[in-house]
Amino acid sequence: MREEEERLVETWRAEERPQPQGWDFSDLADRMTESRMPWDLGAIWRTALAGATRVLDMGTGGGELLASFADALPPDTTATEGWAPNLPVARRTLSPLGIRVVEYAAPDDDVDAAVMPFSDGRFDLVLNRHESFSPRELSRVVAGGGQFVTQQVGGDEAHELGAWFGRHDELPHVNLGTMRRELEAAGFRVVDGDEHVGAYEFRDVAALVAYLQLVPWETPDDFTVDRYADRLMAIHRETDGGSVRLTRKRFWLRAIRR
Questions:
Q1: Alpha carbon distances (Å) from 229 to 18, 209, 221
Q2: Torsion-angle region of residue 244: left (phi > 0), alpha (psi -120 to 50) or beta?
Q3: Contact of 94 with 116, CB cutoff 8 Å
Q4: Contact between residue 171 and residue 108 where contact means Cβ atoms under 8 Å apart
Q5: What confidence tier does 163 reach under pLDDT thresholds 50, 70, 90?
Q6: Residues 30, 42: Cα–Cα separation, whole Å
Q7: DSSP code of 239?
Q8: Between vectors from CA 33 to CA 30 and to CA 39, what angle results, nearest 5°?
Q9: Which of 6, 11, 58, 219 has the fewest CB atoms nearer than 10 Å to its CB?
Q10: Half-sphere exposure of 147 toward its Cβ, with a 13 Å CA cutoff?
Q11: CA-wise closest residue to 60 among 100, 3, 8
């Protein structure tokens, strides 16, 4: 390997680190950009919270996003999180706000496999940001007339990673049309929603590697810089050492329990 290539690989190795707790991408703020979506999720959530009395946030991560709505949350607010390293982070963040954090996740490959640990009709608003869920279980825990508001990542987002690294798990059924049909079959009426195809843009391959440390499910299980150095170098050459783009897919919807 030429000296210049070895230097590049060394800078990429410097980006390798264990996945941090919570979902904090602030360290990449000046190294990546994301295309703007045509909706404001924060405004949508605030509108939904205005009339809610019993709220659930599914997949709260480290609790950072939910905590940002502290002024709008009712006293009866609960959160779930299924990624074990995030549980203590979420509890430290949300417990001072009186929010209980419950361990729960619906497996991506069988969302009906896990029963939600809540009674029938427990909530009048369920918020969900990028978390898998069972329409059947959701229908059970949302009271009649209650709302479900979710933003999801398109199941074939970042498909370029499959071409680059040889494998990229995709969930092609995770899209607005399919989710709408499944919710309506489970007893909801979808009243609003939209989808958007945009891009992530990383300053260079080093920034891409830093991002992949935060989302290890996007890469093969054996992904390391040394093991995939040739493929990373190919990306570097294809982009002339410049910015790297990945497809970004998002959609959202609001549904009312009939």
A1: 19, 11, 15
A2: beta
A3: no
A4: yes
A5: very high
A6: 22
A7: T
A8: 130
A9: 6
A10: 22
A11: 100
Three-state DSSP class for 226? Answer: coil
pLDDT, tens digit, 9 for 90 and up, residues 10-61: 999 999 988 766 666 778 989 999 999 999 999 999 999 999 999 999 999 9
Tell me the C-alpha distance between 123 and 14, whole Å.
45
Nearest Cα to 90, choosing from 58, 60, 55? 60
Q: Strand 142-153 relative to strand 123-129: parallel, antiparallel, unpaired?
A: parallel
Q: Which residues pair with 247 in a beta bridge?
A: 199
**CA 63 to chain CA mean position, Å:** 13
Q: In the structure encoding, which two tokens stand for residue 156, read together?
A: 């074939």
β-pairing, 100-103 vs 123-129, is unpaired
Q: Are 116 and 82 in contact (CB under 8 A)?
A: no
Query: How many residues in the chain?
Result: 258
Question: What is the layout of strands, in order, in the sheet containing 32-34?
Answer: 32-34, 188-202, 244-257, 142-153, 123-129, 54-58, 76-81, 100-103
Distance CA 22, CA 59 (A): 11
Q: Which amino acid belongs to residue 75?
A: P
Q: Enter the tokens of residue 83.
A: 């990624």
Question: pLDDT digits over 88-112, tens only?
Answer: 999 999 999 999 999 999 998 899 9
